[in-house]
Design the sequence.
């Protein structure tokens, strides 16, 4: 199993960051440069474990299933719905926030564990970190700043 990982520090308290990041349907709100629309299927909400979000990332329609949402641990875990939008298997992503008490900051980590063909490992590790997690968190930071 492979891992793609990205982390950063936000100059905001964890409660402010989590209030926005916990909404599984919020991508189109704070990452509008890459996500043009998002909706939760079957009348569920963005804070319902088991919810499926469908969103447009660039020209791809992606469906993801939320498997964990913890307000205590400030963590959201989700997986791709079949068919997966990229040629990887067993994709399980985690967005994790941790308070930094010195300065009232937030340590933000986003990673995914997945399987792929060995010759594509470096590509997908780089892609998820640099093309998904980093710009998404940049969008979240900009949204919180505005």
Sequence:
């Amino acid at each position: 199993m492979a891992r793609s990982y990205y982390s950063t520090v936000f100059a905001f308290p964890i409660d402010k960051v989590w209030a926005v990041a916990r909404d599984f349907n919020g991508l189109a709100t704070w990452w509008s440069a890459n996500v043009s629309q998002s909706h939760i299927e079957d009348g569920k909400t963005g804070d319902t474990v088991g919810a499926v979000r469908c969103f447009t990332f660039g020209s791809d329609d992606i469906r993801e299933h939320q498997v964990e949402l913890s307000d205590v641990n400030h963590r959201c875990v989700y997986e791709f719905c079949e068919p997966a939008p990229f040629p990887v298997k067993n994709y399980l992503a985690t967005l994790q926030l941790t308070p930094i008490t010195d300065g009232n900051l937030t340590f933000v980590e986003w990673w995914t564990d997945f399987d792929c063909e060995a010759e594509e490992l470096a590509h997908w590790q780089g892609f998820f970190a640099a093309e998904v997690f980093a710009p998404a968190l940049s969008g979240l930071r900009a949204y919180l700043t505005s």
